[in-house]
Amino acid sequence: MGNALRLFVFCLALAAVGATAAVSQLWVNQRAVARQQTVADSPALPLLRAYQRDQRNAVGLVVVVALISLLAVALTGGARPAPTLHERVQQSRQEMHQVQHLAKINVAQEASLGLERAERRRADENLQLQQLLLNQALAEKIRLGRDLHDGVIQSLYATGLTLESARQKQADDRVAADELFARGIQLLNQSIREIRGYIQPLTDTPVGMPLVFAKALDVLLTSLKGARTVTFLVRLDESAEAQLDAAQLPDTLQIIRESVSNALRHGAATQIDIRLHEEGARLALLIQDNGTGFDPANVASGGHGLTNFRARAASLGAELKIDSRPGHGTRVVLTLPSLNRS
Fold it and tell me: CA-to-CA distance for 100 and 93, rounded, in angstroms?
């Protein structure tokens, strides 16, 4: 009877430890989600520190419950003789091993959740950027349709009327008809020049990413600037643009967006330089601002901003360097491979 009671108490203790671990983890996750929703514009570092503090509190609670459970099991009487000192030591070691195992499982689950959240955030950022570019493409299509309707189509309509009038006058007044035919030809040539004006920027652009990258960068900087007073100095070498590949565009633009956003929101920058040029057999992207800067040594290694930077650079097969110090702005250099080099 005593052994059965001890076993029952031990099972209850394990259940209490497991339930405490699950509830505390749920509490930590709910607090993290609530912080992200209520302080979406705050730096990632304070959120991470708060999350780590909650995690330590949760682990401490699990350990306290485990110790209390061990004490309850130890105080439970049994029918068998009192265990020897060696047996008590062995039992305590076994129970502590179980507690450590539960703590390791909890830490592993949290690490997995952290990676999942980081991947979800990267996917959301890429989706937002694609939506921004899609909206810009739709606006450009509407503008092009409006220009064609108001310009080329009206010119062609006027040409048709002129040629119709020339046809009607051909039998009675050949001189007037010839003048109308000449006018119609002039209108047709003018329409051809207008159409070429729409096509020429596309046909003159080398095959690759220049038009897409430059346009996407302009849309991105316009959306980030908003009502802020900031000057963007953008220099994109044509030879470097021509070597950008479509697969490199999303992560490259996201690195620019993260750098510019940090410079504006946290660094209060008033001037941001963006430069793309060739560096040997590779391409170099520079984002430099005159903001307040920061001390990289005081930034936790788990910060989402730097973590995402490194993850995106790794996906590009690129080298990332971040140079900053308080009062001297920030300099981000991304050196990536040229996939379109002939």
Answer: 10
Enumerate the β-bridge partners of residue 274.
234, 287
* CATH H-level superfamily of 210-337: Histidine kinase-like ATPase, C-terminal domain (3.30.565.10)
Q: Whole-model pTM?
A: 0.47
Q: Is residue 148 exposed (0-12), middle (13-18) or buried (19+ Cβ within 10 Å)?
A: middle
pLDDT tens for each residue of the chain, 342 residues long: 556 666 776 777 677 767 777 777 777 677 777 776 665 555 555 666 776 777 777 777 767 777 776 777 666 655 455 667 777 778 878 888 887 887 788 778 877 777 777 777 777 777 777 777 777 677 767 766 666 655 566 567 667 877 888 888 888 888 888 888 887 787 777 777 767 766 655 444 444 444 578 888 887 888 778 778 899 999 999 888 888 887 888 888 888 988 888 898 888 999 999 999 998 889 999 999 999 998 877 765 444 467 778 888 888 899 999 999 898 899 999 999 987 765
Could you tell me the two tokens for 16? 């209490």
At position 217, the amino acid (one-letter code) is: L
Interatomic CA distance for residues 186 and 93, integer angstroms: 98
Q: Indicate the domain borders of the chain.
A: 2-127, 131-203, 210-337
309 in Cβ contact with 272 (< 8 Å)? no
